[in-house]
Amino acid sequence: MNHPLDFLTAADLGTRVVVRTRIADGYTDALGYLRSRNATHCTVETKRGTVSLVLAEVVAAKEVPPPPPPRPRRHVGD
């Protein structure tokens, strides 16, 4: 599966992905969880909200590992 659309159509919903799409002045990435897809769009839930991406504008897509666990807070003065 070398083509990003092949990956997006085969990936299980809930898979953590990064999807690169064309925009007016270049490219942008959406990093998050694949929530839905149909023949023309896919939806990715990112930290900043859910984004709908036009599949015709997708130039790259792949699965990414889960985010690292949060670091413990450092205590000042210890």
From TrEMBL:
It holds the Pfam family SH3_Rv0428c. InterPro entries: SH3_Rv0428c. Residues 12-62 form the Histone acetyltransferase Rv0428c-like SH3 domain. This is Ferrous iron transport protein A. The lineage of its organism: Bacteria, Bacillati, Actinomycetota, Actinomycetes, Micrococcales.
